[in-house]
Design goal:
Blueprint: H1 2-18, H2 21-27, H3 33-57, H4 63-83, H5 87-115, H6 118-149, H7 152-174, H8 177-183, H9 186-193
Helix pairs in contact: 1-4, 1-6, 1-7, 3-5, 4-5, 4-7, 6-7
GO molecular function: transmembrane transporter activity
Pfam family, one: MFS_1
Keywords: Cell membrane, Membrane, Transmembrane, Transmembrane helix, Transport
Length: 194
């Protein structure tokens, strides 16, 4: 439950920071609509390349590593974006966060499929989905209000740092040796035996 909660918190922060993304690109980076569209395309390329690579490594890497390290690098991508002052640096940040999002999501979805009993999986996902949506809404509103009072870049940087702290905590909890036997996929266990 702790891992589920921490990953959900990373997703909440991701959604909240994403809500300021277009305003950040236009006000802080002074990007045109076409430049912003290209930036989003860079993120799309990152997701595609990450997903393709993910299909090759998913059976060779423990899901706790995929989820933990993937979340940390998603946060790092947001930090690079938050501190960027040029299109190129923003594009690098977008690519990093999108690339590692494939790994983080694969690790998390495999984790809960391996650890949550099938009988209660639907109810748990529905319950946590409602709670997560509420916190996404609340966090997005709070960050929007603070961005109006201070500056968008400060709020995006703060949000990315909070996301990184949660992701590091998630990574530490997910990589605990006692948890590994529950989080690894059967494929990884079989490969280690062979």
């Amino acid at each position: 439950m702790i891992i589920y909660l921490l990953f959900s918190s990373v997703i909440v922060m991701t959604a909240a920071v994403d809500s300021l993304e277009a305003a950040f690109a236009k006000e802080v980076l002074n990007l045109s609509d076409s430049d912003y569209g290209f930036l989003v395309s860079v993120a799309g390329a990152g997701i595609i390349i990450g997903a393709i690579l993910n299909t090759f490594v998913v059976k060779k890497i423990a899901i706790s590593i995929l989820m933990g390290i993937g979340s940390v690098f998603v946060s790092i991508g947001y930090l690079v974006y938050a501190f960027s002052e040029t299109f190129l640096l923003a594009a690098v940040g977008f690519f990093i966060l999108a690339f590692f999002l494939a790994f983080a999501n694969t690790g998390f979805h495999t984790f809960y499929q391996n650890t949550i009993p099938i009988e209660v999986m639907g109810r748990m996902i529905s319950l946590y989905g409602v709670v997560q949506s509420f916190f996404v809404l609340l966090t997005t509103i709070m960050m929007g209000i603070v961005a109006q009072m201070i500056s968008i870049q400060t709020v995006v940087i703060a949000g990315a740092f909070v996301m990184l702290l949660i992701a590091v905590l998630l990574s530490c909890v997910a990589l605990l040796p006692l948890k590994r036997k529950y989080e690894q996929s059967p494929h990884v266990d079989e490969m280690k035996v062979n």
